[in-house]
Structure formats: C-alpha cells, structure tokens
Write a structure and sequence with these properties.
This protein is of the alpha/beta class. It is 39% helix and 16% strand. Helix 10 links the parallel strand 8 and strand 9.
C-alpha cells in the first residue's frame, strides 16, 4: 500500500487502483464516489486526492444500476448556427433541467452514418437515458442507419421516413400559408428561394410551394437554391432582379435569405411591396425590423423543444408515444406583401 501522491497516473484507473493508492478498501472508495456521509473527512480527502492523481472517474452507469436511471439525456445536432436549432436546443435544455435531467450536447459536423453512429456511441458510454436527434440534414441511406442500441430516441426535423418518434414544426402547412397568401393577393409569378438540397425543412417547404402553385393552376418558375444565409439571398436576389421577366413576389424559405433578397431588390431600386412582395419563413425576432417589416411564417421552436423533451421522458418512463407530432405554424402578415402590381 502507498499514499504517495507523486505516483504517476495510470490510464483507465479502477476502483481497486484508487483503493490501493489511497490505502483504503474498495468499499470506502465506493462510498466516496457515491457521496455517502459515513466516511471520515481526512479519509475522504485522501481518496479524492488519489482519484485526481490516477485520473479516476466514478462509473455513473454502475452508480445508477439500482435506480435504473442516469437522469441525463443526450442531444445530437448537425448545425448549431441556424435559428431553429438554437431555439430548439435552448428549449430542450430548459425542459430537461425542469424535469431534473442534465443534457449532453454532441455536434456532428459531417452528417454521415459513421459520424452519427459515433456520436450515439459516445452518448451511450456516458450513460444517458435517451437521445434527441436534431436531424436537419439528410444522412446517407437513412433507412439503413441503426441509431441506438435500444435507447429511447426522438428525432426533430426529419423527413418522416425514419422508424422513430418525430416532433417537428408543420413545415408543409407553413409553406402553404405563405404561398396561398401571395396567390390570394393576386400574384401569379412567384419565385421560391429554397434552402439547400440536403435540408429536410427546405425540401418540405419547396414541395409544399410547388403543390400549392399547381393546385392554383399556376406555373412555378424554377426554384432557386440558397444556403440559409443572407449572403446567398443577396446573390439569388440579384439573379432575380436581372431577369427579363421579373416576378411579382418571392417566397424565401427563411428570413435570412429573405433579408438578402430584399437587399438586392433595394439595390435595383424596386419598391417592396409596391413592385415586388417578399415572404420569409421562421419569423425571426428582428423580422419586424426589416425594411419593410417582413411577412413571415412563425415557427414555435420553443414548443418543438419542449414537446420533444416531454416525449422522450415519457418514453424513458415506458409510456406509449405517438409516432409523429407536428407543431402548427401561422403566418404573420406585415408590410412586405401587397396586391400584385398590374403592369
């Protein structure tokens, strides 16, 4: 036995290693690891010092075997920069904390099968009770992706083909509301500025736009693909402004691209909405401060995060859960839309 604190640390130290290093029994180390009170202060200090020197971390899985719970959920996301993901993550963390759960976040920079599976593996090693996956981009061959080894899983922002429980905003409803609003104002030539091809949200909004146009017997101009940024909106807006047959309205798949489109139209000298109307999607906090104030589809990201967390916790409790839950959207009409120009 030795209590020489200068002993170099060993990798993957066990509870027996700590006990030998501190000169105590393995049972005493277990009591310290589990914060039990029946340990003398000086003994506790010695054990804690040995844990630090050896790099020992108490096994949370073993510590919670009796209760069968770790009081922790994992969150995997592909993108931390978008408005929707940011607000959804905030709501998940707040809802989990209110329920007495901690949250572990693992961003995945490259949404491939290998990287997603690796993230899930790391979360399982950290002993989480369930996982929320914010699946905002398509994973290759998603139908073949085995995400978890039996852990409860809720997916946010998916295409609906996954055999898992899904919570999301009703993207199709929002796109129909935006497109129909412009049609009701008399617009017939409406350009859609879409998000990237890989995005589930962009795909659903794009398809709903095309379906609504077709239902109104209107020919949709070619869809333009952006990348959610205002910079891409400026590029596409300049492309629209250079058209020999300019549209009377633009439906952008998010507010940032709508902002860029409006910037390009202002450069061209086009009056909004006198010459061209613009609708966005998301209803960002500063949408009302755009010039002019932006008509936009409101998404309740906070409710998505709350419902996803509530659904996951109910699944952890062994309760039956609905396969899909869609949170309604609504259109907020502001100053950027008006009846179509007559000439």
């Amino acid at each position: 036995m030795t209590n020489d604190l200068s002993t170099p640390p060993r990798s993957r130290a066990s509870i027996k290693d700590v006990a030998a290093h501190a000169g105590v029994s393995a049972q005493t180390v277990s009591r310290v690891a589990n914060s039990q009170s029946n340990v003398r202060p000086d003994t506790r200090d010695r054990v804690m010092a040995s844990m630090k020197v050896l790099g020992y971390r108490p096994n949370s899985a073993a510590r919670n075997l009796k209760s069968g719970r770790f009081r922790s959920i994992g969150v995997v996301t592909f993108n931390l920069t978008t408005l929707g993901n940011e607000r959804t993550l905030d709501a998940v963390a707040e809802s989990a904390a209110e329920a007495g759960y901690t949250t572990t976040l693992l961003p995945v920079l490259d949404p491939t099968q290998l990287d997603v599976a690796g993230a899930f593996g790391r979360l399982e090693e950290q002993a989480v009770d369930g996982i929320i996956l914010i699946m905002s981009a398509q994973v290759e061959a998603p139908e073949k992706l085995q995400l978890t080894a039996g852990l409860p899983l809720v997916i946010v922002d998916s295409d609906g083909s996954q055999p898992y429980n899904i919570v999301d905003t009703n993207q199709e409803q929002g796109a129909r509301l935006a497109t129909q609003h412009l049609i009701d104002l008399g617009h017939q030539k409406i350009v859609h500025v879409s998000g990237p091809e890989s995005s589930f949200s962009a795909k659903r909004r794009r398809e709903a736009f095309l379906h609504t146009m077709k239902a109104a017997n209107l020919q949709a101009p070619p869809v333009l693909l952006g990348d959610w940024t205002a910079a891409s909106g400026i590029v596409l807006g300049r492309q629209i402004a250079a058209s020999s047959q300019p549209p009377t309205a633009v439906f952008a798949a998010n507010d940032q691209m709508a902002l860029g489109v409006m910037h390009a139209f202002h450069e061209k000298g086009w009056q909004i909405p006198g010459y061209v109307s613009v609708v966005g999607f998301d209803d960002a906090e500063d949408a009302a401060a755009y010039w002019p104030a932006l008509t936009s589809v409101h998404q309740n990201f906070g409710e998505v995060g709350k419902r996803a967390t509530a659904l996951l916790l109910s699944m952890i409790d062994g309760q039956d859960a609905p396969p899909n839950e869609l949170i309604p959207t609504n259109l907020v009409v502001r100053d950027s839309t008006a009846p179509a120009r007559t000439s």
